[in-house]
Design a protein that fits this description.
Blueprint: H1 3-31, H2 57-75, H3 85-107, H4 111-127, H5 138-159, H6 165-183, H7 191-209, H8 218-238, H9 246-259, H10 261-276, H11 289-295, H12 300-323, H13 330-353
Helix pairs in contact: 1-2, 1-7, 2-7, 2-8, 3-4, 3-8, 4-5, 5-8, 5-10, 6-7, 6-8, 6-12, 8-9, 9-13, 10-13
Length: 360
Amino acid sequence: MTRDTYTIVIYIGYFFLAGIFSFLVNGLFLQFASNLGMRNNSDHLIRWSSTTKPALGGVSFFILFLLSIASYSIFFEENKLLYNPKFLGFLAASVLGFLIGLADDAYNTKPILKLGGQLACAVILVISGNKIVFFGNEILDIGLTFFWIIGLMNSINMLDNMDGITSTVSISIILSSLFILLWKNDLYNPDIILLEGVLCALIGFLFYNWNPSKMYMGDTGSQFLGVFLAAIGINYFWMGHEAQGYRIQTKQFIEPLLIFMIPIIDTTIVTVNRLLRGQSPMVGGRDHTTHHLSYMGLTDRQVALTFFGLSFISFLGLMMIEFFITDWGYTQLIVFFLYFLGLLGTMFYITKRYKQPTKK
């Protein structure tokens, strides 16, 4: 058996084992969560579902994340993860993101404390070399990296407002990242098994989170996913190409915009609408794009399928960029950016046209 064949067999085997483990561990959490992990309704917590459910999905994400690191050390002899500053920074920031969410689920921490933790995640990633190089100016590039990490951590958290939404969108982003790695034939990248582990964790969790859901991922899951996906986005979309001039930089800008389109659009629209109403963007509410699609007449399952469909279109767009567009230019830039603006405008119109029904 060649080395490449051995590696592929390991990845396939681990995918199935991790998927089964995720399904079983989430089911186990659900059985023993009559009190553990329950979120009570409070003034500052507004959920789409009125039913209190265990918010333990994020714990399974983190368990499989750590299990994947351990598995890589077992299956591959050339294990130099502990000597890789970028990986150590990625690991430290992911652990901190998990702890931020865990503390918020347990103690309902103040927003300023959560923001401080997110800022610390950004500092760790930047210091370890996980940063965006776009402007060619150190200060501007670090500022963009901080904005990306903190913005995405909050965006994923805000998107977790209806059954199955954050799970399906995150699955699409991870599949896109795996596609990039396999397309470049980077079989021995340790991030592959990490992506597989978190992907399986999401798939197993989605079985229980699909409408009508039995459990939530909680802030534990959304904060961990936020920093995890932010780091993946930096390394494989923002920095997935060698800078060779302005045209490559526009491609560098379009790919993360395309793959992370759903959380970016939802957060942008919610922030703009709340500011126009004189409200704080950080206060919860039933005014997300998911909610307005429901007000339009879609069921919760149809909303989740709609967002999964839009994410899949973004994935197809990524494949088109990598497979078929050999000469990137202004035409391609305009086409993909107009697609983003079109979807943004459509969602913004829906939020203005379809309002929450007034209770009698």
